[in-house]
Amino acid sequence: MSSTDSSSREASGLQSKKLGRKSLLGEKTDKALQDYLALVRRAGGVVNSSVVIAAAEGIVSRDNCIHLGKYGGHVYLDKKWAWYQMKRMGYSKRKSTKAARKIPMNFEVIKSGLLRKIQYCVYEHDIPKSLIINWDQTGMSIVPSSSWTMAAVGSKQVPLVVYDDKHEITFLLSITAEGMLLPPQVCSI
What we know:
- About 35% of the residues lie in helices and about 20% in strands.
- It has helices spanning about 5-10, 25-40, 50-65, 80-90, 105-125, and strands spanning about 90-95, 135-140, 150, 170-175, 180-189.
- Strand 4 (about 170-175) and strand 5 form a beta hairpin.
- Helix 2 (about 25-40) packs across helix 3 (about 50-65) and helix 3 (about 50-65) crosses helix 4 (about 80-90).
């Protein structure tokens, strides 16, 4: 080989190999899992470690359940593995976003007017402190869901469909002006 032959050949680049170890699930199953999780997120669903593990178990069971560790196979799915999967997809833990509640511009005026009316009624009708009750109600989900999910790093909005689920039991919590906490009242609709 002459020196002119070797100098005329130019390197167009180095061949790169896929780095890292192979996917525990196999490329086809791993792709199916990632596609499913991306679909769940686009639909506004929660993606967390429990969802990732359940989805992976479902996909592996559909294809060949003997690969799962509980059936004697080599695939053991745990939280650490699920977090790794979500990290590979570019997801980070995010709180669901929604529009903030707005208070009126004249809130302080309204509040002081209400307090004056209450003080007047208490004084005028000689109402004892044990009959002055402050109460509030709160909804408790029948089926708890999370307001946390995994979403792409840097995403500004993280909508969740299940976050607005209104299937709730209403709890009424109250306390007297004396400081006595009254038993909660429970109402389901």
